[in-house]
Structure formats: C-alpha cells, structure tokens
Prior knowledge:
Blueprint: H1 2-8, H2 14-25, H3 33-58, H4 66-82, H5 88-113, H6 115-135, H7 137-140, E1 153-154, E2 157-158, H8 161-183, H9 186-196, H10 198-203, H11 208-233, H12 244-257, H13 264-278, H14 282-300, H15 304-318, E3 344-353, E4 356-366, E5 370-375, H16 382-389, E6 397-402, E7 405-406, H17 412-417, E8 420-422, H18 435-440, H19 451-455, H20 459-479, H21 494-506, E9 512-516, H22 524-539, E10 543-547, H23 551-557, E11 560-565, E12 568-573, H24 575-578, H25 582-588, H26 594-609
Parallel strand pairs: 5-10, 5-11, 8-9, 9-10
Antiparallel strand pairs: 1-2, 3-4, 3-6, 6-7, 11-12
Helix pairs in contact: 3-8, 3-11, 3-12, 3-13, 4-5, 4-6, 4-11, 5-6, 5-11, 8-11, 12-13, 12-14, 12-15, 13-14, 20-21
The structure holds adenosine-5'-diphosphate and magnesium ion.
Adenosine-5'-diphosphate (ADP) binds at residues 353, 356, 358, 376, 378-384.
Amino acid sequence: MSVLNRLKSVPSFTFPVVAAILLLLLPQLGLSDANQRQLLLIGFLTLLVSGLNLSLGYAGELALGQPAIYATGAYVAAYMGAHGSTDILLQILAAIGAALVVGLLTGIPGLRLGSWSLAMTSFFLVLLIPDITNILINVTGGPSGAVGIAPPTLFGALLTNYGFYLVCMLSVIIWLAFMRNLVTSRHGIALRVMRQSPVLASSLGISVFRTKLVAYALGAVPAGVAGALFANLDSYVSPGSFSFALAISILAASILGGATSVYGAVLGAVIMQLGPSVSTSFQQDALIFYGILLIAGGVLLSDGLTGLITRAWKRYVVRPDHVTRSTTHSPQDFHFEPMAGATLSVKGVSKSFGGNVALRDVSLTAERGQVTALIGPNGSGKTTLLNMICGFYPIDAGTIDLDGVRLDNRRPHEIAGRGLARTFQTPVIPTGITVSQAVLAGRYSPERVSIASAALRLPKFWKVRAHDEERVAQTLAIVGLSELADEEAVSLPLGTRRLLEIARALVSNPSVILLDEAASGLDEGEVARLAVLIGRVRDAGGTVILVEHNFRLVLSLADTIHVLAQGEIIASGAPADIEVNPRVLKEYLGVKDVGAAAAAIEAETTGHAS
Length: 610
Ligand code: ADP
Ligand code: MG
C-alpha cells in the first residue's frame, strides 16, 4: 500500500509523459524492425479507435465509418506522394481536410435522421470502398492498389526509418493530448450530458445537433491522420486494408478498452493488434475473434478495461485519504451576487397533445425580483407550461416573451442561452460524473469557451476554468452540498439530487429560474434551506417560477400564485387571496368545508412563519 500511496502523490500527467518519451526512444534502444512496425500499426489503430471513442463513447453516436475515413486519408496521401507532394506534414494536413469533408458529408444526413441512420450510412460507406476505388481507378489504382508513392519527406529532407517512426508516434501522442484536454474540459462534460439526456443538454444551452456533429467530425480527424501515415508505411495502399473486419475490430477495441476513455483506445488497440498474432489460423477466424472480444467487452465490462482499472485505482489508492467536510452554513450566510432578472410573459398559450388539451389560453407574467408560483393538481399542465417556456414543444397558440423578446419560436438551447434555467420534476443527473461536474454543466452557456481553446489549453480556457471552479464551489456551498462535491452525482438520494439541480440552474446566474416541484422528496431541513435559498434568489433580483405541491411553502414564498386546473388558470393572486379562494379550496385542495379549511391553513401558515 505504501508504494501505491507514493504513486498517488505523482502528478497525473507523469505516466503518460514518461510513456510517450519511452515510446519515442524505443527504436534507439534496439527495437527490432518487425516490432517497430507492430508499434506503428498499434499507433494507427489507436488513432482510429480514439476517433470512434469521441463519437461513440462521448457523443453516443454509433459511427462505423472509421475505415472509410482512414481510406480517404490514405488515398489522399498516396495521390500526393505519387505526384511529387511528398512532404508528410502537408499530406497529413490534406488528409485531415479530406477526413473532415467526408465526416461532415456523411455525418449531417445520418445525424439529422437519428442515430441508427448514422450507423447505417457510415457502415454503408465502408462497404462502398471497393466500388469507389474502382470508379476512381485512375487515382486509386482500383483493386490492385495505388503504387508509385514516393518515400515521405519532411521540410525537403528524406525521412529516415526512425524519422518516420517519430512523425507517426508524435502524431498519436499529439492527438491523444488534444483528446485528453478536450474530454477533461467542460466540453467533455457537455458531451456526456448530451449523450445521456439531449433534453437536459439543450436546457443547459448546448446545441445537440451541433455538438454531435462536431464530435463526429472531430472523430474523423485522427482517422484521416492515420490514413496519411499508413500510406507511407509501405508506400502502397489497396482497398483490402479498409475492410468490414477492420470496422469491427475498431469497434471491439473501443468497447474493450473503454469507449469513454482516452487511454482506453491505446489499450484496446494493443489487444486488437497483438491478440490476433497469437493465433496462427487467425486469417480465417478474424471476425469470430473480434466478435468474441466485442461481446466479452460489452457484456463483462460496463466501461471497458480502463473503467475497471480506474475503479480499482479509486478504491484502493484514492479512497483511504478521502476526507469529508461538513458545511453548516445556511444560504443566509452567503453573499448573493445581484441577478439580472427579466420579465417573462406568457400570453394566451394553448397546447394539445392529440385530443388531450394540456393548456388552454394560459396567460401569466413573472416579474423580476418576485416568486411566481404555479400550483394545481397532477396533470393540470404545470410541467407542460414549463416545457413550453423552455421551447421543448411548439405551442399551438399564444406567445411567450422575455423582456419583450419572443421566445416561442426559438430552440431550447437558444432559450437557455437567453438566461432561462430550469430543474426537472424528475431530476436529470447524468451518470459517471461527480457532483461538482454535474453543477459545472450549468456553466456551459453563460461563459463560452471554444473547443480549440479547451483542447489547446489557450489562456481563455484557463481564465474560464478559474471562474468555473470558483462559481461551482460557491454554488455548492450555497445549496449545502460542498462535502459531496466529489461523490458520484447520480447515486445521491432524491432530495439531494433536487438540490443539485437547483445548484446547476443557479450556477449559470440565470435571469429566470424555473423550479418544477422543487421541494418534493426533500426532508424538513432541506425544505427550510430551499425556502431561504429561493428567498435569496428573489431578493437578488432573479425571476423565480415555482411549481410546487407544498401549499404552505408556496404561501410563504410566492408573491403571486396561479392555480391551474385541467390546463386552465382558475385563479391568480396574492397568497392571501388564493388561500381563501373557495374555488381553489374546492377544486385544488378538495375541501368541502371551505370556511374551516381556510381557517386551518391560515392558523398553520402563521404558526409556521413565526
Ligand atoms: P402537471 O405537471 O401539472 O402534473 P403535466 O404538464 O405533466 O401536468 O401534464 C398535463 C397533461 O398533458 C397531462 O394530461 C399529460 O398526460 C399531458 N402531457 C404532458 N406531456 C405530454 C406529452 N409529451 N405527450 C402527451 N401528453 C402529454
Ligand atoms: Mg408536473
């Protein structure tokens, strides 16, 4: 254990850096040519698998077209190499360009039509490779392959064997570093959120289509690079290298190594490259072997071998020192920054689902610095109204605007981008992320960082990351979850997940916050905390829309209460009016003796408030 404990204090980037340096030096240390070749092939496969991890593991799109992109890169480089453009960097750049074009062309229709279509179109692309190479026989050499590729050069000098090895391995290392930076940034969290809940992603201001497309297109980049390198390995390219079996082996490597992992791609590629060489009868049985590994990885390992290793690492190395701090602060203790509330107006909104009228001519206004409550029995349309405001469904009639700007014709991520943040009746918390990462997801929209900034760790990235960390820690403290910051978010009890959702909404410093049944599932202490918190948000100038069943909580917090019944607003007014409104008492609370009930509620409320 002491060795493990010492390992823990080593910075996390040490192992990859040492491994990378060793890898680059191996040929100098007497690695045989045959083994050098094996390593290069592992490197190419790593690039292919890593790209798939981005689109499949992180973005959740089953994109099977890696061999086609690989082929594109290879033929582009082959063509250049045979026509006097031997500089390997130029070839790599051209291959990346071509890979992006093919990735986008095949990705857009596939993604538009849904994920199965992407699997089909990308897979179809692989099946088409022999036909396309045949059609382009003048360029590709058809079935017999492209020949006459001149040896690669770099800045005018012929590359030695070792030079070529260095270029290949550096390409792999640079890509893995890029990928690592990307997935450990907020974009990585955004991808996980989007994969698990597109609804949540768009309510956080993440454009689902755009993000999926970017992940898919970026996943094509390493495949293009691998293709360009591969063409120069033997100065020969033929369609046989880009087969169906390759597509399956990439998929198996991804799943076996761990699809939501950077280094899983390396592990998967090593296994898929070296595994077959153990068996002599492999040529005939390749697909069976890949299939077995695919099934074994899929059935036995939820997140691949790297998942297994990470869990063991956390359990035996990181855990023992884990300390829990407890916060006893109340939201009252925190300084709330002023919030730029906005006026949300809903005018004459109607919505039916088939024949079922969920909302009928609903109008209400939520003012800044006020709590506007929405109450009503189950099925009365409260959640539907929130969904309309957030743009999840088109409305049948009416308008919704924010400070006079129409919202009802915009898409959910655009509406979120205008400062609307919400929680869900059933909390939506992605798996595989910690509490603080779940809250961090809420920071996507208010302060943006480009993928390039994140992957290249530009100054902008560090600046925003510092803000992110500060805001997340502050917000966790406000909702009282600081001590749980590093716990897995999804495994928390319901009440805590609700508070977490509120933190995620608050961290974006929204102008309007919509809370759907915020207090259900909370214990007494948590409800009290929530009440103080909502009060502070209101006092800070935020616009709060509160859907809630706890009548007492609503009476104590709301400035205005709207009562919905069967999709219609049956009463609106101040708490004092609503609690004695006979129709509300009868229809909503189901009370027969109206006078007695009103008196009881009043007694309880005043008793509670004092
Ligand atoms: P509440 O939140 O007040 O309990 P909801 O807004 O969830 O009520 O539901 C109002 C009505 O709209 C219900 O009859 C419900 O079945 C219907 N409804 C809500 N969302 C959908 C949907 N996506 N498709 C069909 N019907 C829906
Ligand atoms: Mg509801």
